Amino acid sequence: MAKKPKNDMDTDRMPTEEELDAIQAQIDAAFAEPGTKKSEAPAETANDGENSDERVAALELEIANIKDQALRAMAEAENVKKRAEREIAAAKVYGIERFATDVLSVVDNLGRAIMTMDGKAKADLGDNAKNLLEGIELTEKELIAVLARHGIKAVPGKGSKFNPNFHQAVAQIPSDEEKGNVAEVMQVGFTIGERTLRAAMVAVSTGKA
Q1: Which domain holds residue 48?
Q2: Same domain, 172 and 206
């Protein structure tokens, strides 16, 4: 019969308690750090548990901070986006403000040219002069329509309620208009978007004489 290989214990019998203790000691020694005694293992396990809880709490706090920073960054990005959209919209509306102010002098000159002719004088004009006057009137209307298409509109004139946001009172006169209404317009006013580009110079009615 072949001879069995020699082992620390005989495989044909149940190991004794001493042999089991020796195996357990080898396992404990394999998992223990070098220089650590077996008697110290329970304390280290407790410390490891406490350190693990601390690490978990620290990570949770770090995650919460990262989430807060991310939310703040997203909110700031949204605010920047909205602010940029408002600035773009404002640039579209008010970008021509200086140009529009210069164009108003052209509107004024056309209006003065028309006002120099009263109804009787128009009837006395020749055909060429009448055609010229009609051309000036059409030019003024077209210019005001073009300005309106770009957000530049005339403020309410004669007969409207006096509004200090749109009107500049230069006189108070009796008229058929209700007291406090605009009786006469000396210079047409204009708005651009929600701003007053130029206040209208008006005379305010004090009521009937």
Answers
A1: 44-94
A2: yes
Establish if 110 belongs to a structural domain.
yes
- pLDDT in the model for residue 2: 47
In a domain? residue 9 = no
- Lookup result for tokens 């009263």: 118
Does pLDDT of 7 surpass 50? Answer: no
How large a percentage of the chain has pLDDT more than 70? 75
In a domain, 83, yes or no: yes
- Quick one: 156 and 206 in the same domain? yes
Q: Phi, psi (5° rounding) for residue 18?
A: -60, -40
Q: How far is CA 197 from CA 69, 101, 114, in A?
A: 44, 7, 23
3-state helix, strand, coil in the chain (%, to 5): 55, 15, 30
Cβ contacts of residue 43 below 8 Å, gap of 6+? none
| Domain of residue 180, CATH code | 2.30.22.10
Report yes or no on 174 lying in a domain: yes
Q: How many Å apart are CA 205 and CA 71, to the nearest integer?
A: 59
Residues 49-91: pLDDT tens digits? 667 778 888 888 888 888 888 899 999 999 999 999 888 888 8
Tally of CB atoms within 10 A around 140: 18
Within 8 A by CB and 6+ apart from 126, the residues are none
Report pLDDT digits (tens) over 96-146: 888 999 999 999 999 888 888 777 677 788 888 888 889 999 999 999 999
Q: Specify whether the CB–CB gap between 190 and 162 falls below 8 A.
A: no
